[in-house]
Records
---
Amino acid sequence: MLRTIFGELMGVDAEELDDHKHFVEMGADSLSLLQVSQAIQNKFDVKIPFRVMLEEFSTLDSLAAHIDEQLPVDGSLTTQTETDAPAAQLTTPEELPPPLPLKPELIARDEEQKPIGANSPLERVLTQQLQIMARQLELLRQRNNGSSSRHAAIPVETPKTALHETAPRKSDETAPRKIESPPFIPYKAIKKERSDGLTPQQREHIQKLIARLTARTSGSKRLAAEYRATLADNRATAGFRMLWKEMQYPLVADRASGSRLWDVDGNEYVDITMGFGALLFGHSPSFIVNALHTQIERGLQLGAQSQLAGKTAALVCELTGVERATFCNSGTEAVMSALRLARTVTGRTKIALFEGCYHGTFDGVMVRAGGKDAEGRVSAIPLAPGVPEYMCENVLLLKLNDPASLGVLRSQAHTLAAVLVEPMPSRFPDLRPEAFLRELRAITTDAGAALIFDEVVTGFRFHSGGAQAMFGIQADLVVYGKAAGAGIPIGILAGKRLYMDTIDGGMWSYGDESYPRSETTFFAGTYFKHPLTMAAVWASLDHFKHSGPALQEELNSRTLRLTEALNSYFEEVSLPARVANFASIFRFLFAPELKFAELFYYHLLEKGLYICETRNCFLSTAHTDHDLDFILRAVKETVAEMRAGGLLPSSTSSSAEARQIPLTEAQKELWILT
Ligand code: PMP
C-alpha cells in the first residue's frame, strides 16, 4: 500500500521503488513527503510528520514496519476514501512546505549555475532551489498578465516569502467570480456637515452640552490638542462628527480603583468600559496588584523562563479542559498563531470565518463581506486599506448561525485548515449559536479541519471553562485573552495536543529514546510568558478557581438585572432603544431614526458614567448595587434631557420594534475598535 501511495504521488511505477533506499534518494521532495504524510494519515489513521520520514523512517521498509507497530492488532484500517485525502488539494504555491534538497537530476541540470558563496553541498542545493523557485515565480507572473511589475520590487528572500507575495491569481476564464470592491475606509462615519438640519432647540441644547462637558473635562481636551501632532490616535477620532467636534477627545484617566476612575480634572466616573472587558475584577484588585508588586521586586527576567509559566499553563488546562496551553501578548497574536498551527497540521491554507465575528488585527482575518460571486456566495474583501487582497483569497466568509453556511461547509470543509468562530459572538450579544456550533464541530471533525474558538472577550467571563464548558463542545484550539490577564496584556493559545505540539514538537521524556516528534512551526515573541503577565494570569486564574462558578453566576445575574431594568425603562417611556446583553457584556442599541443617539454617551459622561468610544459595556465584580442604581439613574436623566432638547422623540409607538433593533453599520465599525 505504501508503494502505491508513493508511486502515485511521485508519479513513478510502484514496482520500481526500492524498499531500502532513502526517500530523498528516490526523488521525493518536501511537498511529496507532506502529501505522503497526509495520505498515510487518511489511509491508516497514523500521523507521521514528513520530517520523521526524512530523519527516522526514511525508507519504505522502515516506514512500513513503523506503521505496522502503530496499527490496531486486528490490522483494521480507516475507511476514508481517496477523495478525502487533503494531499490532492495542495495546489497553490503558498501551501508548499519548506523546500528540501532537489531531486539529483534537477541538481545536475542546474550545476552550471554555481551561486556565489555556496560552499557546502547543502548550501549549494538550497541556493539552487531558491533560484529555480525564483524562475518559477517569474513564470507565474508572466502567466498572470504581466502582473510581474506589481511585485517586481519584492526581493526573493526565501522561497516561502516570495511565494506568498506572488500567489498567482486565477485567470478570468477559470475564476469563479470577479468582484469589484469599493475602497473601504473604516470609520467613515466622519460627517463634515455643520448644521445637519438642526432645529434651534437642538442646536442650543448641543452647544450647552459642549460648553458644560468641555469645561468639566478641559484637561482631557487640552492633552488631546497638545499631542495630536505627535500621538497618532484613532480613538481620538472614532465616530467623529463635525457637529460636536469640540467635545471629540478621549477621556484621559489619572487613576482608577474598583468600579471607578478619575480623570485628569479630578472628576469621578463609574466605569462600564472596564478595559474593554479585561478588568473583570475591576480596577486594581488587591490580589493582582500584590502579585505584580512581588514580581516587579523579583525582576523582569526575559529569556530565562518565568517560574509561573508551567503551573499557569496547567491551570488553564484544568479550568478549560484543554490539553496544552501557551502564552503570548494579545488576542491578535494568539489568533494568528492558532491559524498557523492549524495550517501546519492540515497542510491546507484556506480558512472559514463568519461575518460579524471579530478576531483582532492580523491581516489574515481582517476581512469583510464584498460582492457576491456567480453562485450568490459573498466574497471576502479587505476590511481596511492596507490589508492585502491575497490574504482574503484564503478566506471563505460565511454567515453565522445560518443553515446555508453549514451546506457550504459540508462541501468545502475538506479544503479548509480551520473554521474560526466566536462561539459567543460579542457583536451579536443576543445570539447563542449552540446548535450551529455543534454542526461546525461535526463537520470539521469529519473533514479533518481545525475548529478554533475565539474566546478573547468571553473566555473566563462567562464561565471558567468558557464556551467549551457552557455548550459541552470541545474545539481543537481556543484563544483566550482579556479577562485572563486582569488588565495586563495577554493572549492564551490552548487546545489539543495534535495542534499544540507543532509549537514544540510535543511530549518527550528524559532517560529514554524519546524526542520531540511532531512537525513544528514557528511561534515566538520577545515578551511571550513575560514575568508580569504570568504573575497576573496566575493570580487571575487562581482567583477564578477558588471563587468557583458563583463568581460568574453572580456577575451575570447582576448584569441581567441591570439590563432588564434598563429595557423596562425604555419600554415604559416608549423609546425605540434597547440593551442587548449576554453574561456580563451589554450594549445600548438605538433605532436608526434616532440620529443623535451618539450624544447619549456624552450626556452620560457628563453625569459621571464612562463608556469608551467603542460603546461596549462590561460589568465587573467590583460594581456594587449602588453603581447599578447610579447607571439606571444616569440613563433616565439623559433620556429626559435629550427629549427636552429635541434630540430624542418624546414618545413613539414603535417601542415594540425596539426589541428588534439591529446594529447600524457605523455602530458595527465602532465596535471593532477593540
Ligand atoms: N478576538 C476577539 C473576539 C476580540 O474581541 C479581540 C479584541 N477585542 C481580539 C480577538 C484581539 O485581541 P487583542 O486586542 O488583545 O489583540
Note: Residues 121-143 form the longest helix (23 residues).
---
Amino acid sequence: MSQHLHPKTQAVSSGVSRQDGHGGLSKLVLTHPSGSTAEVYLHGAHVTSWCDAAGRNALWVSRRSRWDSSATIRGGIPVVFPQFAELGPLPKHGFARTAEWETGDSGSDDGAVWVQLRLGDNEATRALWPHRFEAELRVELSGSLRVALEVVNTGNAPFEFTAALHSYFHIADVDEVVVSGLEGIRYRDKTRYGAESVQENSALRIRGETDRVYAYAPDELQVRDASGGILLRKRGFPDAVVWNPGPQLAQKLDDFADDEFRTMVCVEAACVEQPVRLTPGQRWTGEQVLSHLPAS
Ligand code: TA6
C-alpha cells in the first residue's frame, strides 16, 4: 500500500501517516473517513491543523512561524507544560512546546482516528525541572477534535506544574469575533500588570491587546462570528486564557506578521490559578474538545 503514497509519507496505522512537514520536521497526519484531517508535529506535540473536508483549517498558524527545532511553532495548539507563561523560573510556557516528543500508539476505532505522543523526563528536562514524569498527548479526530494531555509522576517526590493547550483559532475579523462563556468570571489582566477584574455580563469582544487569565471558567466556551465558530469544551483545566496581541505587540513579535492579529484569537484551556500537585504515581488529565458551530 505504501507504494501509492508520496515517497516521504510513511503509513503508521489506519488513517495515520508520518510525513516531512515544514522545515523538515516530522508530522503525523490523521485522515478521517469524512475527509477531515489533523496534523501533529512531533516537535512540541504541536497540533498545527484541523481541517474540514474542504481543507479549511480552523486553527491559525502564522505565515511567519519558524519551523525549526529550537523554536515554538507560532499558532496551532502549543502544549504549555510544566509552567504557564513566566509564572516560575522555567523558560516561558515551559519546555514541552520545544521538546521532541515520541510517537506512541495510534489507530482508528469508534469513528475516530487517534494518535498518542509521549515525552518523558531526560537530562535536558531534569536540568530545568528536577522531576521524573511521563506526559502523553492524545489527539483524536472524529466529527470533533479532542486533545488530551496526561501527566504522571514517575518519581519518588511530589511535584507541581501549570499547563495549557494554547489554542490559536482562525477568525475572519478580530473586530467581529465574540468569545462567550466567560460572563461574570474573575480574571487577571496581564495588559494591566495582572490587575484583577470581572468580565461584565456580556460576551468578550477583542478591543486591542488582550491577555487575560480567567479563573475557574465554565467548561464550555464559544468563539464565534457571523460565519460560524468553535465550541470548546474543556475538562480538567479549570481556567481559561484569552490572548490577542493587538497591533502594537504584533509588530514586536518576529514570528508574527503585523496584520495577523486581525485573523487569530487564542482561547486556551488552562490550569494556572492553582497548580496541579502530583504525588508519586499520581496521574492528571486535562482535555479540550473542539467542534464546529454553524453560521448564525
Ligand atoms: O497565554 C497568553 C500568553 O502568555 C501571552 O502573555 C502571550 O505572551 C502569549 O502567551 C504568547 O506567548 P509566546 O511565548 O508564545 O509568544
Note: Residues 211 and 259 are 18 Å apart (CA to CA).
